[in-house]
Every structure is written in C-alpha cells, then in structure tokens.
Amino acid sequence: MNDIKHLRNTLWTSKFSKQDEAAMEEVAATVEGSSSPFKELILFALENTKKDVADGNFKVAAKELSLVHELPVNEEEVEEWDFAWFYKNQLGEYFDKNKNIDRVKQVIDYLAESQKRLKQ
Fold this sequence. Notes:
Number of domains: 1
Number of strands: 0
Mean pLDDT: 91
Strand content: under 5%
Radius of gyration: 14 Å
Largest sheet: none
Helix content: over 70%
Order of helices and strands: HHHHHHH
Number of helices: 7
C-alpha cells in the first residue's frame, strides 16, 4: 500500500507531522474496512507505529511499517502477491532486527491467524 510506504519513508527521516498522523488514521480506516487476511497484522503494526512515534522512536516505527508496507489489502492484491518474498525477506529481517520479543511473538500469532484465513 503506497500510503504505508510513504509513512515509512517519512519516519526514516525522523519526522512525523500532524498531517502524517492523519494519513496514518486514514490508512487504518481503509485497512479496517478491508477483506485482507492480513488486516489484524497491519493494524497491529500501525498501532505499534503510533506508540513508537509518541515515544520519539521514529526508526523503530519505520521498521514496524517496513514489515507490512507491501502486504495485500484487498482480495485482488492477495491473488497477485508474492508470498515467498515476504516470508523470506520482510519477515526474516523483522525478526532479525526487532529487539522487542513480545512484539515478535504477537506478529507470529497474527501471521498464523492470517494463514488460516488464506486457506478458507
């Protein structure tokens, strides 16, 4: 989702404005209304991003969005999406670089749930 990519790129510069905050709320609303099997994982990452921004941890927030910035948000995107690339690259990097073990465990739980929805 391009909006998530833009927010992530903004966070890498250690800047985050009220306008960016509003954009993140719009993204969350879009994801909330979506049919994505990854909806809960994306919303979890957005919530973590908000917390990290509030704490001034912009780089950590950017890493949260890096995990989900290319996840499919609708059914059409799911059909065309490269799952192997996500599992081998995005997920591996997130697990390797994340020091917050509780978040890692929660990501695993959300990911497991998303896999169940993909099989339905």
